[in-house]
Amino acid sequence: MVSWRTGRELGLPIFWKDQYIPTLSELQQKSRQQLRELHKTIATHTSPISTQQATDAKEIIQRASGFEDLIPEVVPLALDLEDYLLGNGHIRLWREMLTQLYTATMNYSEDDAVRMKLLARIATRLGIDASAYHLNPKEAASNFKSAIDFGLSHGDPGLWLPVAASYLHATGLDNPLNKTREEAESLLELGRRHNDLKSQLITYMALGLAYNHYGHYADAFVWGQQALAIALQVNDRRRAFISGLVMLEHAKRNPQLRPHARELILFLRRDSLLNHNLSYQGYYYTHVAAFFHEKKAFDVAIRYYKRALEIFVEVTKEPHSQAKTLLGLGLALTQNGKYDHAVEHLELALSLYEELQQPLYIGWVRYCIGWNDHKRGRSQKAQAYLEDTYQYLEDLPPSAGRNSLLRQLRQDLDEVRSHLKGTL
Asked: Residue 313, exposed/middle/buried by CB under 10 A (0-12, 13-18, 19+)?
């Protein structure tokens, strides 16, 4: 009989009894039981989870994926862990789990059709995460293309249509608006033909994102309404919440839409996702802060930015969200006359964007730092800094965001120069 110490050295899980090594059949049964218990846990959890709970969930999935017979049960449950893990900041753990599960599913040989279906779902999720968390655009595109191939080989439009829509959502900002619109129209037609509401929902979200990017806020709001209506119809709470956030973004940018903003804030506040999903709390605070920022209610905006920043720094540890919130907070502090405090936050944002290699955002933060100098009476320093930033942006590849930022910066540079001439 093997001792417990030897058993541990062999990698035996902690639930095994001393002096006993179970059979493979018993191990598989134990894993199946743990999967069922995990399913109950994620179905009933109503509060943020600890790091230990997240690690335990990942280990249960990893152990179960070692049994080929359990793969069809493991994959859907693992995908259901999304809000359980991501909502409480365990982004890296979630992606590690999915990547390992992808490899295990590739080796599943009992039913090729089932294997393709499961691979399509995992690859889609990996692509969405790579896009949403700004991890790697090429990785996102590669995963989406793999998922489409898996879905096409399976022959089920319900597999590859949502993937194609997700791919459009991830890459739409890289294309001219008319091309994104054409691709979206084709996907919407296919979605209607196959009665695939999920692909239509994601496509409308992609259209809203693209139209917002090009400054067509009223049109973006309409696409957001379409997405929200479908999300509520199919009870997709996560996408309903995200659609509401994005519509709030559109509303704050268009004076005619601002009356809808308070309705959206109330809609989002009532969503129970806010009670146990800390990531969504952070996004909610950021968007509400931006709304009050646009209304020039700087004290209120600063308060919400700080709430969001606390979550992104201490809980989710997601650098892009930290940087974006620091940028908004720094700008609001500048406009509120708290210049030293503002620069501290803007420099932190600049450091993060440099690490993330986001050149357009680097230019935007540098612009804000230069404008801070001008507002506090250092106009000569501001002029030199803004001129250097203008040259930096001019050297970037042309894009709608870069061109818009250059136009705005050019106007403010003229104001700084005019101010300096008036003081001579």
From this structure: middle
Cβ atoms of 309 and 325 closer than 8 Å: yes
Residue 210's Cβ-side half-sphere holds a number of Cα atoms within 13 Å equal to 24
Between CA 74 and CA 76 the distance in angstroms is 6
pLDDT above 70 covers a percentage of the chain that reads 84
Do 225 and 263 contact (CB within 8 A), yes or no? no
Question: In which region does residue 50 sit, left (phi positive, over 0), alpha (psi from -120 to 50) or beta (all else)?
Answer: beta
Per-residue HEC secondary structure of 123-170 comes to HHHHHHHHHHCCCCHHHHHHHHHHHHHHHHHHCCHHHHHHHHHHHHHH
Alpha carbon distance 253, 106 (integer Å): 46
Residue 175 CA from chain centroid, whole number? 20
Q: What is the C-alpha separation between 280 and 282, in angstroms, rounded? A: 5
pLDDT at 151 over 80: no
How many other β-carbons are positioned within 10 Å of the β-carbon of residue 423?
Answer: 8
d(CA 355, CA 222): 36
Q: Which two tokens stand for residue 330?
A: 């720094």
Number of neighbours of residue 37 by Cβ within 10 angstroms: 10
Write the DSSP symbol of residue 210: H
Q: Which two tokens stand for residue 317?
A: 């540890």
Q: What is the pLDDT of residues 232-273, one digit of tens each?
A: 999 988 889 889 998 998 888 888 888 888 888 888 888 777
For residue 396, what is the DSSP state?
Answer: S
Helix 237-253, helix 197-213: angle, nearest 10: 20
pTM of the model: 0.74
For residue 118, what are its two tokens? 């499961």
Token pair in block for residue 103:
């490899």
Q: Which of 234, 191, 256, 260 is nearest to 244 (CA)?
A: 260
d(CA 268, CA 266): 5
**CA torsion angle for 326, 332, 335, 336 (degrees, to 10)?**
-110
> For residue 377, what are the CA distances in angstroms to 52, 374, 419?
51, 5, 10
Sign of the CA dihedral running 298, 365, 224, 156: negative
Tokens 């693992």 -> residue? 78
Mean of the per-residue pLDDT values of the chain: 83
